[in-house]
Design goal:
By secondary structure, the chain is mainly β. The chain contains no helices and eight strands.
Length: about 55
């Protein structure tokens, strides 16, 4: 079961698979496949490719 932090944006059709932790203020783009933890304040798109860290 994924654990999603506060103020996280998850775009349409994004898939979060497994026991994943998503940090506060993270952004996950539309259609992104998330299969690993996302740190707080990061922006990911595509196949969990980080494009920006706040």
């Amino acid at each position: 079961m994924p654990k999603i932090g506060a103020n996280v944006f998850i775009g349409p059709y994004a898939m979060i698979l497994g026991d994943i932790k998503i940090g506060d203020n993270a952004t996950i783009g539309a259609g992104t496949l998330v299969m690993k933890d996302i740190e707080a304040g990061a922006t990911y798109t595509g196949n969990t490719k980080m494009i920006r860290r706040r």
